[in-house]
Design a protein that fits this description.
- By secondary structure, the chain is α/β, with parallel strands linked by helices.
- It has one domain: 2-enoyl-CoA Hydratase, Chain A, domain 1.
- Helices cover about 35% and strands about 20% of the residues.
- The strands form two sheets. The chain has a six-stranded parallel sheet with strand order 2-1-3-4-5-8, with helices on both faces. A two-stranded antiparallel ribbon has the order 6-7.
- Helix 2 runs parallel beside helix 3.
- The mean pLDDT is about 85.
- It comes from Moorella mulderi DSM 14980.
């Protein structure tokens, strides 16, 4: 009796070989269906529903480190000034936007990039309100004061210190003169747009004994209001309400007030 036709080394769960494709027949590729908006929101924002409300107030975030002419490492959370400036131009031209809310939680960063953002804010024709949450340190201070009205959270902090350089520094008098001129630019801008005198700002900037590895001053919430850097302590609700009031009264942008 002949033996059955069985392979001597069977492979378990071997997939069936598809039949050969006739020549000239196009290859059919099954496209993956697009993910639903809920799935995309979970992946990107960690929530299933994102508020979709058309408002006359535009919110601008200044977070992490302000990136200027040099690209920072990828692990750094950054705000790129080349992204912020076009947004400000669009906000200025958009007739549907009546006011701007700037939310800051920044450690500072590039001096010229920070000053460029501050100069753009203060030259807008629409009212601007700033809100410091967490921190508005270093070059974040000029951005915070470049508004019609500024708020700071009760536990938020602002660090005022002299300008510093990183990288190659040529040890010649011209280097220190350049630093001094840049320092004067920052001081002059803050004094012009806040309620603090130049003498008091320099005292805070060059104070010793408060920072372990630096000179300067840390201001927490009410302290920033007390010295005249920030207008008042408040949060999101107060900032939005104040901006709505400025819009209703037809108040112009920050630059028109100085």
């Amino acid at each position: 009796m002949p033996s059955p036709d069985i392979s001597p080394n069977p492979v378990p769960n071997q997939p069936a070989t598809p039949p050969p494709r006739p020549p000239g027949e196009p290859v059919r590729v099954t496209a993956r269906p697009p993910a639903s908006p809920e799935v995309e929101n979970i992946k990107e924002l960690g929530q299933t529903n994102v508020a979709d409300y058309k408002s006359e107030i535009q919110c601008l975030q200044i977070v992490g480190q302000i990136e200027g002419h040099l690209v920072l490492p990828p692990q750094n959370k950054t705000t790129k000034y080349e992204h912020i400036i076009p947004q400000l131009v669009a906000i200025e031209q958009d007739p549907g936007i009546k006011g701007l809310l700037v939310v800051l939680n920044t450690v500072g960063g590039d001096v010229e990039a920070g000053l460029a953002i501050a100069e753009m804010l203060v030259s807008m024709s629409k009212p601007v309100v700033s809100l410091v949450l967490g921190g508005g340190h270093s070059i974040g201070v000029p951005i915070a004061v470049a508004a019609n009205h500024s708020f700071i959270a009760e536990t938020a902090t602002m660090t005022i210190h002299p300008i510093r350089l990183t990288g190659l520094v040529i040890g010649v008098p011209q280097t220190y003169e350049y630093l001094d001129k840049m320092q004067d630019r920052v001081i002059r801008f803050i004094v012009e747009h806040a309620n603090i005198s130049e003498q008091e700002l320099r005292r805070l900037m060059f104070q010793t004994g408060e920072l372990a590895r630096d000179i300067g001053t840390i201001l927490v919430g009410k302290d920033a209001v007390k010295v005249g850097l920030i207008n008042e302590v408040g949060g999101l609700a107060q900032a939005v309400q104040h901006l709505k009031r400025l819009i209703a009264e037809g108040v112009p942008g920050p630059g028109k007030l100085h």
